[in-house]
Amino acid sequence: MKNQYTAVIVGGGPAGSSAAHTLAKSGVDVCVVDRFRFPRQKLCGGLLTQRAKKNYAAIFGPGWDEMYEHRCDGAKFFDGERLVNSIENYGELYVCDRSRFDARLIDKSKEHGAEFVQGDKVKAVDLRHRVCKLQSGKEITCRYLIGADGVNSVVANAIHNGKTSRNGKAFALEATLPVAALSREIAEPEIYFDSIDWGYGWIFPRNDVVVVGIGGLFSKNRDFKANFNTFFRDRFGKAFTGVVKGHFLPFGEYSKRMGRDGVLLAGDAAGLVDPITGEGIAYAMQSGWFAAQSVLEALSGKTKNVNAAYRKRCAVITGELAYAAKIRNFLFSAATRALFITALARSSSAPYRYMDLMSGDITYRELLKNSGRKLIRMVASKIAGK
User: Fold this and answer.
1) Residues 253, 168 contacting (CB under 8 angstroms)
2) Rounded distance, CA 360 to CA 182, Å?
């Protein structure tokens, strides 16, 4: 490890790897610093959509089939024990082991010359001089700094002067269990809209294991462990006795500035997680790629303001998240949640549009345009008592 680089990336997840791969491939000397040694454990359902596949191909090229452990072509949507709707022969959905997924991405970045410092935490950041101070006592100076270090980002906290709140974030509890330990077979992803306030539960198959979890807005729920235990018991007919782990994640509150003064925030560090679908991996890769492209543009002299260039690129993401934050009030609030479930149950196309949304084939604006009239008729019918 040198003490000075053109670019330093804090965090070796999908956002950090995408940025590192893009920069290193263009010949930029770049260093990724992560506090863990890879492969490291990472709490995440691991669902990968066509959006993630497209972003992966654009950034890393071939090799997608080595990135996931399970593939399926459908999903089921539940309200309690009631199957509300389902998708069959939709196309490919994937479930990955995040520890392996992230390790494979960082390896691809290293193959192009990115340096990777692992097992050494960035404990402080000097934004003015762009210096990362590591737990080991070492210091790294850079021209450009990309914070891709997750929801509890050291870089983001430095930018925001530590003024962050958990109330705008979601919290998730998750357990990974052997298939043999469960009372029934899980063949495809299952989504449950009744398991927690302002959120949902999930059961994802991954070859020889199953991932079970719940996630919801932190400020709307007070006993996540009790909710998880109830969710598990209702789904499998027995008490949960394994190990459950929790983590915070962004939930619609993304960074408006996306950084400042040559410091860029990407992925969860920038709050780029869809507050309805929970999509985060695809946006992490895309924002890391955008950050690297903006740095390359600044290095070539095509732009004098790397932060403005990055915000402009990320508008395609933040614009979607702004719409999603508004729509989630209809999906999750107690006053209108029943209408959403009714609409989902009545429509044969609704679950497919949901998956199209996750795949990036339609936008939230297009979804509202296509669904608005049906919702208005449904609300009118509800008021009329029909």
Assistant:
1) yes
2) 33
Cα–Cα distance for residue pair 18/21, rounded to 1 Å: 5
Which is it for the CA torsion 155, 213, 344, 86, positive or negative?
Answer: positive
The residue behind tokens 């980002």 is 153
Which strand (E) or helix (H) includes residue 50?
Answer: helix 50-60
Structure tokens at 148: 């891709």
- Residue 198, φ and ψ in degrees, nearest 5: 55, 50
User: Measured between alpha carbons, how far is 368 from 346 in angstroms, rounded to an integer?
Assistant: 17
Domain total of the chain: 3
**Each residue's pLDDT tens digit, 190-221:** 999 888 999 999 999 998 899 999 999 999 99
Classify residue 84: in a domain, yes or no. Answer: no
Q: Which helix (H) or strand (E) holds 380?
A: helix 364-383
Residues 5, 31 contacting (CB under 8 angstroms): yes
State whether 113 and 32 are in the same domain.
yes
Domain interval for residue 351 = 326-383
pLDDT at 276: 84
Token code pair at residue 135: 């737990």
Confidence of residue 365 (pLDDT cuts 50, 70, 90): confident
| pLDDT tens digits, 227-259 | 999 999 999 999 999 899 999 999 878 888 899
> Are 374 and 255 contained in the same domain?
no
The one-letter amino acid at 234: D
pLDDT value of residue 329: 80
Those residues whose C-beta lies under 8 Å from the C-beta of residue 349, and which sit 6 or more positions away, are: none
Residue-wise pLDDT tens digits, 162-184: 766 677 899 999 999 999 888 88
For 170, the token pair is 């979601």
Q: Is residue 124, in this structure, part of any structural domain at all? A: yes
- Cα separation, 259 vs 270, in Å, equals 8
Distance CA 333, CA 181 (A): 35
Residue with tokens 């691809």: 108
**Placement of tokens 């990036």 in the chain:** 360
pLDDT digit string (tens) for 309-357?
999 999 999 999 988 888 888 778 877 778 788 878 877 777 777 777 7
Are 348 and 222 in a shared domain?
no
Q: 336 with 329: CB under 8 angstroms?
A: yes
